[in-house]
Amino acid sequence: MRKTRTQLQKAMAELMAQKNVQDITVQELTRLADINRGTFYRHYRDIYDLLEQTEQGLIAEFNTLLDAYTNEELQRGLRPILSDVFYFARKNAAVCEALLNIHADQRFFQRLSSLIYERCVGEWRGLYAIDFMERGNYELEFVVAGAVSLIRTWTARGFDRSPEEMAELADRLIRNGLIEMKA
User: Fold this and answer.
1) How many domains does the chain have?
2) Phi, psi of 159 (to 5 degrees)
3) Could you tell me how far CA 41 lies from the centroid of its own chain?
4) CATH code of the domain containing 89
5) Reduced to 3 DSSP states, what percent helix, strand and coil does the chain have, rounded to the nearest 5?
6) What does the radius of gyration of the chain's CA atoms come to, in whole angstroms?
7) Which is deepest, 2, 24, 63, 171, by most CB within 10 Å?
8) For the segment 36-79, what is each residue's pLDDT rounded down to a tens digit?
9) What is the pTM of this model?
10) Residue 136 resides in a domain
11) Domain-located, residue 131
């Protein structure tokens, strides 16, 4: 099942780089993945089911990555978690490129942004002593959207920098922005 899923996800990502998801057929997907259509339907109802399960799997894996960090670790700095986030994106390059593609359905971008937002609002409030609610959450919305857009741009540019370089850039942008908000 894992090999089949990987082949289908890879083929789906390749097709999504060329066309909108609604224009992808099971026939062309299975042909590209070298999978029997019956095998596809044994695991998925349709293209959208494959896409949904792919998104859910990626979000669950991303959540696990975030869960690995305690508040105490985050208080020492964001660079380690940011580095892991960029390594995660590169490890899942094909799927991230397809799901974060500027022409793709923005649902995954929104889901990822919401997850980061929910996770960060409490942790960053403690780290930076900022009451985001009092400020209307504009700053946090900006930081989260910027962080996800940074990942999107990096994937679109073919991972032209190392995960460490991207983590350093994101860390600097986040810290400088949040520190400025305290003033």
Assistant:
1) 1
2) 55, 50
3) 27
4) 1.10.357
5) 75, 0, 25
6) 18
7) 24
8) 999 999 999 999 999 999 999 999 999 999 999 887 887 788 89
9) 0.84
10) yes
11) yes
